[in-house]
Amino acid sequence: MKIKELRIGNIIIPCNVLLAPLAGYTCYPFRILCSELGAGLCYTEMVNCNALKYKDKATQKLLFTTPEEKIKAAQLIGSDPRIMEKMARSDYFSKFDIIDLNMGCPVPNVFKSGQGSALLGDLKKASSIIKGCKKSEKVITVKFRVGIREDEMIAAEFAKMCEASGADMITIHGRTRNMMYHGTPYFDQIEQAKSVVRIPVIANGGIFSKEDADKMMELTGADGVMIARYAIENPFIFSELTHKKIKKDKHTIIFEQIDLATKYYDETFAISYIKRLASFLMKGKKGNNKYKTELYKSGNMPELRDILEEIFCKEREKD
Ligand SMILES: Cc1cc2nc3c(=O)[nH]c(=O)nc-3n(C[C@H](O)[C@H](O)[C@H](O)COP(=O)(O)O)c2cc1C
Question: Which cofactor does it need (predicted)?
């Protein structure tokens, strides 16, 4: 795919390969890693506006960042336009340059409460959320799916609504809410949406290789791609796509992530994040199941380091 800079509102991002918001993964250390590997923009995981409103500590932690992170992008989820606006304008986001609005999450509890992908069925409300959040004077992006069900796909209509309401960029996950995380994305839906708006359109869904990224760009005409699950399995996809020379392997990466996670978060958070990340990074390797059990059994950081040394040293020998 052709790598280029992208202008999002008044912000220029260095390249058009983005890291998706991923609950449980895209904390500060992982965003720093992916930026270093070449990702042009890295979002926090979704942050619930109601939880923020009630000053929930765990939710606030998701917004941790430092000046080291050059362009700061957070994702907000909610269904009440007034609360969404209030939170977007609050001090919680004062350090952030970009706020993404989640209009794609398919999870049953989220959907039932009118949040995430439920907004695909209420364009009026979705529009007033975008307009309200825009008053924060931040750059506003929207991430949505192509529809709730396959017999009612609305990507182009929704894209036009986002643009008319003030969104500076949209990311379209080419699957419907009913498809959850499986099946081939509807490339034609993304293509149609791209053809009716002038703001940048990022295509997401099912990119698990360089070839998939090329195909996504070719079939949709999108301005860039966003990678989710494959980024936690193989973060080097960013350096591969952006032709960035990186002298690191997964062993180096996992230990750097431990250092960052323990520096900035408490041990409980760091341990559970590292376990989750490691089990993705070791995907497809021999002896995976045995190591995974040992990985999840480890109760403290020294134990975790020992088992990770064993897992990722083995990998080094193979490489
Ligand atoms: C574990 C997990 C957590 C996710 N968390 C979020 C999230 O917080 N916000 C969001 O917009 N999408 C979230 N997603 C959806 C991804 O950003 C992405 O749209 C989806 O996985 C499709 O991309 P992929 O096929 O490259 O994985 C999540 C997906 C997974 C698998």
Answer: FMN
Cβ neighbours for 309, distance < 8 A, ≥ 6 positions apart: none
Q: Are residues 236 and 278 in the same domain?
A: no
CA nearest to 48, candidates 79, 14, 82, 12: 79
pLDDT score of 318: 54
Ligand 1, atom 21, residue with closest C-alpha: 228
Tell whether residue 121 is among the known ligand binding residues.
no
Measured from the Cα of 231, ligand 1's closest atom is 26
What's the pLDDT at 284? Answer: 78
Instruction: Give burial (CB, 10 Å; 0-12/13-18/19+) of 193.
Output: buried
Contact 60, 66 (CB under 8 A): no
Q: 59: helix, coil or strand?
A: helix
Residues 82 and 218 in one domain: yes
DSSP state of 21: P
Find out whether the beta carbon of 208 lies less than 6 Å from any atom of ligand 1. no
Q: How far apart are CA 69 and CA 164, in angstroms?
A: 30
- Domain count for the chain: 2
Q: Give the mean pLDDT of 286-309.
A: 91
Question: What percentage of the chain exceeds 90 in pLDDT?
Answer: 94
Q: Which residues contact 297 (CB under 8 A, 6 or more apart)?
A: none
Q: Does residue 42 share a domain with residue 168? A: yes
CB of 102 closer than 6 angstroms to any ligand 1 atom: yes
Is 173 annotated as belonging to a binding site? yes
Is any atom of ligand 1 closer than 6 Å to the C-beta of 205?
A: yes
